[in-house]
Design brief:
This protein is α/β, with parallel strands linked by helices. The chain has two domains: 11-118 and 153-185 and 348-391, Medium-chain alcohol dehydrogenases, catalytic domain (Quinone Oxidoreductase, Chain A, domain 1), CATH 3.90.180; 203-326, 3-Layer(aba) Sandwich (Rossmann fold), CATH 3.40.50.720. Helix content is 25%, strand content 24%. It has eleven helices and 18 strands. The chain has helices spanning 64-72, 126-129, 181-185, 187-200, 216-227, 240-248, 262-270, 284-293, 314-319, 334-343, 362-371; strands spanning 26-32, 38-44, 52-61, 93-101, 113-116, 119-120, 151-152, 164-168, 172-174, 209-212, 233-237, 253-256, 274-279, 294-302, 323-326, 353-358, 378-382, 390-391. Strands 3, 4, 5, 8, 9, 16, 17 and 18 form an eight-stranded mixed beta sheet that branches. α5 (216-227) links the parallel β10 (209-212) and β11. The protein is globular. The structure holds zinc ion (ZN) (2 copies).
């Protein structure tokens, strides 16, 4: 699947660098000072506790939410407040190699390649007991007298822009040998798309699915919906290059939001409107479009975090018996299901990976992601030796 030998890391490059007995006492990690102030520092090597392992981070993808956290703090929350000047390391979409085991861990071995999901719930609240650990009622309660054991690396605990991180075993997914580091970082993104579709009902074979917004989650929502048998799958976006990737990932139709009446076009393609709409843009315009393009009794998933209050046609929602679901992250083991599709080659998630840079060049990588330089979609930062940095395949 990969013809991009130049900048795509293969598992062979991992070797046994920095694992087990070779573990150093300190590691390099990017630390968030004030807003937009990141510095590369030396930190003590984290130590895994019960039901945890130490992961040597081999690659970490940049998410739009990382950019939010670094500039505005939310939705990260460290010790009950903003994450600034708390020795906090952001980054949450990473993969790597098991480097050490906590006491009693026999579920994994040192040297196994793993990718991670973000949230390890407290395991004891009402939502965790339902499998909704991304909505844990003890979110961020992992310090002082409040310590309920919740972890969301890169949000409430240290994350992946570093050489190592500690993960609860429940957040680990094994990576098959043939999958590149970069593709493995995308499993959690596909898992978020999977979770959204699961919450909408899951059995989408033969149902129409519209995805608004061809960012990484939107593009992989197209891929997952197609793999689940949805028909037709329709993608709405404003960038032709991204809509084209959506077609490669399985969109039956793409709609250019700049030149077409998207609601009319969806109705034309589906008859009475869409059964399911996944809004990955989260703007006032797209939320209203979602409400008006969903058929009576249909369902909308809001997979984006709007920055401010959004005004929308609630009356149309009620009178048409439309359901609206807010989803957070990748609950109910959706990431494992996404990996099953990716391992089986049901879609090529690596189509959304565009750039790789070494960890030391994180600021350059963040700039590419933020400004979408060179049509950047998923920008990955790698710890593998020999990564020089730049666009995939160039
Ligand atoms: Zn993310
Ligand atoms: Zn919980």
């Amino acid at each position: 699947m990969h013809d991009d030998a130049m900048t795509t890391s293969k598992p062979a490059a991992s070797a046994s660098r920095g694992l087990g007995d070779e573990l150093p006492d300190t590691m390099r990690a990017w630390v968030l000072g004030g807003p937009d102030e990141l510095s590369l520092q030396s930190k003590p090597m984290p130590v895994p506790g019960r039901a945890e392992v130490l992961v040597r981070i081999d690659a970490v993808a940049i998410c739009a939410t990382d950019l939010e956290v670094i500039s505005y703090g939310t939705p990260a929350m460290i010790e009950g407040g903003a994450p600034f000047n708390k020795n906090f390391t952001p980054g949450h979409e990473y993969m790597g190699t098991v480097a050490a085991l906590g006491p009693g861990v026999d579920e994994f071995r040192v040297g196994e390649r793993v990718t991670v999901e973000i949230h390890a719930g407290c395991g004891q609240c009402k939502r965790c007991r339902m499998g909704m650990y991304t909505s844990c009622h003890n979110y961020g309660m992992n310090y002082g007298d409040h310590d309920k054991g919740h972890r969301a690396n890169g949000f409430t605990t240290n994350g992946g822009f570093a050489e190592y991180a500690v993960n609860n075993i429940n957040t680990l997914i094994r990576v098959p040998d043939q999958m590149s580091d970069e593709e493995a970082t995308l499993v959690v993104t596909a898992g978020t798309s999977m979770y959204g579709l699961t919450e909408l009902g899951g059995l989408v074979a033969g149902e129409s699915v519209v995805v608004i917004g061809p960012g990484p989650i939107g593009l992989l929502a197209v891929a997952v919906a197609k793999a689940l048998g949805a028909s037709p799958v329709i993608l709405i976006g404003t960038r032709e290059s991204r809509n084209a990737i959506g077609q490669k990932l399985g969109a039956d139709h793409v709609i250019d939001a700049r030149s077409e009446d998207v609601v009319a076009r969806v109705k034309e393609l589906t008859g009475k409107g869409a059964d399911y709409v996944v809004d990955c843009a989260g703007t006032e315009t797209t939320v209203n479009q979602a409400v008006h393009m969903t058929n009576r009794g249909g369902r909308i998933c809001l997979a984006a975090f709007p920055k401010s209050a959004v005004s929308f046609d609630l009356g149309a929602l009620a009178v048409n018996n439309i359901y609206l679901y807010g989803i957070r992250g990748e609950g109910k083991s959706a990431t494992h299901r996404a990996m099953a599709f990716m391992e089986a080659g049901r879609f090529d998630a690596s189509l959304v990976h565009t750039h790789t840079f070494p960890l030391d060049d994180l600021p350059t990588a963040l700039k590419h992601a933020r400004e979408r330089i060179d049509d950047a979609i998923k920008v990955v930062v790698s710890n593998q030796p020999g990564i020089t940095g730049g666009a995939k395949g160039k």
